[in-house]
Amino acid sequence: MFSGNTNLKEVQQIRPLENSKDLDPLIEKIGNSKYVLLGEASHGTHEYYTWRAEISKRLIEEKGFSFIAVEGDWPDCFKINRWIKDLPDASNSIVEVLKEFRRWPTWMWANWEIAAFADWLKTHNNSLEFDKKVGFYGLDVYSLWESMETIVKYLEKEDPETAALARQTADCFEPYRENDSYVTAYRGLKQKCRNEVVQLLKEVRQRTDQYENEPEAGLNAELNSLVLKNAEKYYEAMAQFDHSSWNVRDNHMVETLNTLMDYHGKDAKVIVWEHNTHIGDARATDMAASGLHNVGQLVRQQHKKDGVVLVGFGSYEGSVVAGEFWGAPMEKMELPRAIDGSIEKMLHTLGAENKLLVFEEGSELNKRLKEKIGHRAVGVVYDPHRERGNYVPSKTAKRYDAFLYLDKTQGLHPLHFKPDGSKTPDTYPFGI
Description:
The protein is α/β, with parallel strands linked by helices. The protein is about 40% helix and about 15% strand. The radius of gyration is 21 Å and the shape is globular.
């Protein structure tokens, strides 16, 4: 499958990674970049979350980054944002906030690792003026019902004229809600209803300056409307039964990211947390041959002049939290040793310790990792017994600007509660 012939011994750009101080070469690499995208090789690994948090803390404290944007739903993540900024009607505790994450896979954000980081963010924000407080926002497109409910309730209170359009839009979707299937909802929609979604976003965007009765109220209304608009495109793509929905989803995440950057002003800097498959440049994988692009590629193409740094993660063995099938109970599963010919196995053979790789144009490390090599990607649905199919052929030094290799990892620590049912797999076509 992969050659695995690359020899990385004595390559100077491979450094030990034991503590926060060892991140110095990465922080130096980031420099004045405005976009830092931090990946993960699974949605259920403790160390990916904690190392991303450690990098994020340094970027916030040392380089003044403005907000964190994650592979999560806008309405749920905005509740975290409310809590860390102490906005009106915020929950009393971060555990209360995270227990409102009810869409499977709940463990992805409702876990103790996120709780600890959110607590740090709140403490950091406490001494700051509001416009300096660090935010936490969701980029994803899946929160159809939640976004619809949020915007209808808000507009009924603040903007009755636009609320009538919002309620009319919601009524179009209502007959399909019991199915809990987004594709079914799309197929049932009339063209009139689809047009109303687009019109709703237009109306809200024109009126956002009227909605600031509390901090970020206008932003919340606009982004919930954007979810509705792009969900329409997503459902149409899903109904085609091909992979075009991937592009629609990642386009939405970048559009949301750009909206957030515009909102925070010309000096804004953002940290993005998503799976490697979203933040690693798709052009350095087989995705490009299938006509797919992703967040990392689009951000590089659109914002190169502002500085973009993509950071991948990977590990050799350990455990991971995932489900056997879509909607299955979460389990702590074995993460088998990486296969021969993979970047993870190659780095393990250099020694069973964590490593930081920083890629510099023309360096020896870049030359050694310019060809495609296997790189493990674990989704929320995972079968350790079919491990070989989880490897993505990648030109590592082109896919990322830096890479954190963690030799042995463990599953993260979920808050233990059950999701409210399980959406059909159309919401995560790749399980990532």
